[in-house]
Amino acid sequence: MENVVEITREEIKGNKEIAQALLVAKSPFFVDTTIEVDEDNIRIKSEVLEQYDDYNKIMLLNLKDKLRYLINLSKIYTDLENSKYTYRFDKESIVFTENGIPLLVYRGVVNQVYPYDRISYEEFLNQYKAIVISIIDVKAHYDKLSAGALEFYRGNLFCEEIAKEPTLEGVVNILLDFYNKEKQDNIENYTRVTKKNIKFLKTSFLMTGIATLVLGLLIGYMLLYSIPQKDKIADIRLLFINKDYSNVIEKSKKMNRKSISQEDKYIIAYSVIQSEPLTEKQKERLSKINNQSNADYLSYWILIGQAKIDEAIDVASFLDDPQLLMYGITKKIDELQRNPELSSEKRTEQLNSYKSKLEELKKKYLGSEEAIKKDDKK
After folding, report:
1. What is the Cα–Cα distance from 267 to 270, expressed in whole angstroms?
2. Taking all residues of the chain, what is their mean pLDDT, rounded to a whole number?
3. In 3D, which of 107, 96, 109, 88 has the Cα closest to residue 67?
4. Where are the transmembrane segments (predicted)?
5. Of 331, 280, 281, 279, whose CA–CA distance to 301 is shortest?
6. pLDDT band at residue 223 under the 50/70/90 scheme
7. List of residues 6+ apart from 251 with CB closer than 8 A
8. How far apart are CA 221 and CA 210, in angstroms?
9. What global pTM score does this model have?
10. If DSSP states are collapsed to H, E and C, what string results for the chain?
11. Which residues are registered as beta bridge partners of 8?
């Protein structure tokens, strides 16, 4: 579905080319946007994918997921506080990915494209409270709350506490505390089972020993792998929203990359890039990845973060990407130098082999020694 806003060319202030470039640039905070330009008008099209969850879909989630989505939403203000982008912030202007990452539908540019001014702290806080309360308390009306009825809200005691809280940080702390309690309660008292599995459980009582064994294996899988995996993914997403990239990497170290969704591969890969000893130019270039990037490319960085250098080198070879291959070999050389289990002779032999490969790649893809030096300086 496309959301279209049409403006006149005169409504774009300052350098129109820069403003248009910012409108269509990929961003982790906005849905993808395209523009159509004719002689007098500009149509700004925001692409809202079917798999995105809007306000009405969030209302149908369980309480734990509602809280997680709302906590993630709070980060929008600080993440965009000093950016060149402006935005509308209300229940119609936000969607979430299937992993609970918030995206804004409408974007502007400071002093250039409407809305021209950044949203104020007070306005964001009031809108955020209205969204939070109306999602948690289904009897509350968002429109009334956002129009000034927050101070008169009475109903859910937890929501009353939110309505009275004067700061965004305070509201988030209340939500986090409630989320952790709800999460612990779910762990202690519930196991989520799909309708299909419930039907299977009912019929399994009529089965013989083999069917009982299969059922036991299924439940064992859910308890030992599926649920812990989902909790770990939820923690990783929250850490990513908080820009705690080192702990994203730590949490993902023992995960099988093949069982990670494309969205989460992007989260982990981006965190690794931000944590690696790369130059600012390299980070800026590599950080342009998104959740639509090549899955093998994202897997390469996940393997780097998991210290599975040999596998990362194999992926780089498969991608036929000399830059990734050279970086992987550089990491391998560092790994060999730090490995205390290798004998001096074995270490020297392997180091020479990898250094030789690295030099061959540099000569082949970077050209002369002068070009190599220039590349190193970068």
Report:
1. 5
2. 88
3. 96
4. 205-227
5. 331
6. very low
7. 232, 235, 236, 239
8. 17
9. 0.52
10. CEEEEEEEHHHCCCCHHHHHHHHHCCCCCECCEEEEECCCEEEEEEECCCCCECHHHHCCCCHHHHHHHHHHHHHHHHHHCCCCEEECCCHHHEEECCCCCEEECCEEECCCECCCCCCCHHHHHHHHHHHHHHHHCCCCCHHHHHHHHHHHCCCCHHHHHHHHCCCHHHHHHHHHHHHHHHHHHHHHHCCCCCHHHHHHHHHHCCCCHHHHHHHHHHHHHHHHHHHHHHHHHHHHHHHHHCCCHHHHHHHHCCCCHHHCCHHHHHHHHHHHHHHCCCCHHHHHHHCCCCCCCCHHHHHHHHHHHCCCHHHHHHHHHHHCCHHHHHHHHHHHHHHHHHCCCCCHHHHHHHHHHHHHHHHHHHHHHHCCHHHHHHHHHC
11. 41
> In terms of Cα–Cα distance, which of 184, 81, 168, 105 is closest to 132?
168
Per-residue confidence (pLDDT) for residue 378, from 0 to 100: 47
Cα torsion 282, 285, 290, 292: sign: negative
**Least confident piece of the model among 64-73, 140-149, 282-291:** 282-291
Length of the chain: 378
User: What is the residue type of 135?
Assistant: I
Neighbours of 283 (CB within 10 A): 14
Domains in the chain and their CATH numbers? 2-180 (1.10.510.10), 257-377 (1.25.40.680)
| pLDDT for position 184 | 86
Q: Letter for the amino acid at 47?
A: E
Q: Find the angle CA(260)-CA(298)-CA(288) to the nearest 5 degrees.
A: 125
User: For residues 24 and 34, is the Cβ–Cβ distance under 8 A?
Assistant: yes
> To 10 degrees, the CA torsion angle through 179, 184, 190, 194?
50
- Which is it for strands 41-47 and 2-8: parallel, antiparallel or unpaired? antiparallel
What pLDDT does 288 receive?
83
The structure tokens listed for 292 are 């639509």
- For residue 197, the Cα-to-chain-centroid distance in whole angstroms is 30
C-alpha to C-alpha distance for 178 and 113, rounded to whole angstroms: 39
Radius of gyration of the chain (CA): 25
